[in-house]
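haha ok so turns out i had the wrong file open the whole time. this is the CORRECT one, sorry everyone. sequence first:
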Amino acid sequence: MQALLPFPSVLDMMASEMNWTTDLGNAFLAQQQDVMDAVQRERRKARDFGYLRSNGQIIVGGGPYITVMPVNPGFVVVPYYEPGIVFLAPRPGFVVGGAIRFGFGVTIGGFFRPWGWGYDRFDWDRHGVIINNEPWRRSWGNRREYEHPYPGVRRYAPAERAGAA
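then structure:
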């Protein structure tokens, strides 16, 4: 969530659709590979229908996994689109254009490093998530006790944490 702080419109959407946000998070914990495959299926549709394509702000990679990367890695843009349009074939005779817009962007520099920018990514080839350059291994089964191994961060025993308060 901290990585989304520069994007209040995304946080607002997630907060206004709390059931959807919770369901998506639970689905990802329970079926990470299936969710990542579904993202790829939808990206492929949007690309094949002509809605998702490289432009002045993003580069759409067409390898076995469709990646969407900013042209300038230091400037991240937020896409805005209507799923009922971009994941359906356009009607014959209609010109595809502007269905996915990138209006709001944020310059990401050293200031955002504490929130994970520059160290986090999806590893589409391995169906993994990388947080702080380490694989994220949280799942439905370990969701209550999982603690991400952040390198260089000292872990305190519960007694030490209680004594520090």
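Strands lie at 58-62, 66-70, 75-81, 100-107, 121-123, 128-131, 134-135.
again sry for the mixup
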